[in-house]
Design goal:
The protein has about 375 residues and is an alpha/beta fold. It contains 12 helices and 13 strands.
Length: about 375
């Protein structure tokens, strides 16, 4: 799309509005919805008052959605699909909210104003939930409504130093430009798990599948250390607390930390708690990484939500929690992003969000070109 061409979109499960930030100037939000009042306040603090309809998606009607949008974006709840959750799937109450969204799309279709482009975002656990049945069900639903369907897995680590892979399912009812598709899967956006899920689709669904083409982004040139606050501007744990953190590591992890200490250089790592099964018993462990990345930010209910920073310097090990500002930077958000005052609420907002740079890449190289085609030609049959 050209800089002066703006397409309308609906945003469901909008959270703090990170997808809207990522979509960029080609898009204008004409409706946004989320169930959580705290997230809605953050959304409006960022995007302006009167921008959000707070409430359950199941209570919305077609009359709430004015006009016809080119795109409907839905970052539907991931708790029942995440590997960190119970994996109850799309039939469970939270992730099953997708069907409330889909009911609205069906209503709009009956009125002749369904968006020609749909973008669904979720955790990579969607690909294997219920042995792949949930993913196949989504694809069958979209294909049954006349949409061509494809997906990409985008890791935020391509753009910002956080390991955060997410699946973006993009469906469209427009004639697809040849430049946007390819004959088969290709790294880095078509991962082995995505390839396996797509190839397991039944023939009637597979006939509507497309392999979206996205160019590889430039190599990321930032690390976790680059996004941290100055050492003297943050609060550090007492040494006894840091020692207890190290004690929770496995022997192999402790040896790795000792090896980092032995270099004599400054080392910056991320540490997060995990529950592991050892000798048949669940054990809480702290795992650290020194590869320049933070682990995936999660909500307070997730095992690694309270990530720590570990700094090794001159043989001394210090640790502290990531600050909300640092977490926002790891999501590719500007420093002025209005996260909630409490650290727990900020982590809930940020851990539930989508990395804005990943959305921007998807928007620039797939969604906006599809929108331009939708504006130029009628929907494909």
């Amino acid at each position: 799309m050209s800089g002066d061409s703006i397409a309308a979109f609906y945003e469901f499960f909008a959270g703090g509005g990170m997808a809207r930030l990522g979509l960029g100037p080609d898009w204008s939000c004409s409706f946004a919805n989320d169930l959580d009042p705290a997230k809605a306040r953050a959304y409006e603090a960022m995007h302006g008052p009167g921008q959000m309809r707070v409430g359950d998606v199941w209570n919305l009607t077609g009359e709430d959605l004015h006009g016809q949008a080119t795109l409907a974006w839905a970052s539907f709840p991931c708790q029942d699909l995440s590997l960190a959750g119970e994996r109850r799937g799309l039939a469970a109450p939270r992730s099953g909210a997708f069907w409330g969204f889909w009911r609205l799309i069906e209503t709009l279709a009956a009125q002749g104003r369904a968006p020609p482009i749909l973008a669904l975002e979720n955790v990579t656990g969607l690909l294997t939930s219920h042995g792949g049945a949930d993913f196949a069900n989504l694809c069958a639903t979209l294909a049954g409504a006349g949409y061509h369907v494809g997906a990409v897995t985008i890791d935020a680590a391509l753009f910002t130093p956080q390991s955060r892979p997410r699946v973006f399912l993009v469906a469209c009812r427009v004639a697809i430009p040849a430049a946007l598709i390819q004959a088969g899967p290709m790294a880095p956006f078509h991962t082995p798990s995505l390839i396996g899920a797509a190839r397991a689709l039944p023939p009637p669904i597979a006939s509507n599948w497309v392999w979206w083409r996205l160019p590889a982004p430039p190599v990321r040139n930032t690390t976790l250390a680059d996004l941290l606050e100055p050492d003297d501007a943050v609060s550090w744990r007492p040494q006894d607390d840091t020692a207890r953190l190290i004690e929770l590591m496995s022997p192999r992890q402790r040896a790795r930390v000792a090896g980092e200490c032995a270099t004599g250089e400054r080392r910056v790592g991320a540490a997060f708690r995990r529950v592991r099964v050892e000798a048949g018993t669940k054990v809480q462990r702290v795992e650290a990484r020194f590869d320049g990345l933070a682990g995936c930010l999660r909500t307070p209910a997730g095992g690694s939500s309270r990530q720590s920073v570990i700094v090794i310097e001159k043989g001394e090990i210090r640790s502290r929690l990531l600050t909300p500002r640092e977490c926002a930077r790891l999501m590719g958000l500007p420093d002025e992003f209005p996260w909630p005052a409490s650290a727990s609420a900020a982590l809930h907002l940020l851990g539930d969000g989508v990395a804005a740079p990943a959305v921007r890449w998807l928007s620039e190289h797939l969604l906006s070109p599809l929108a331009a085609r939708a504006a130029a030609r009628p929907a494909a049959a």
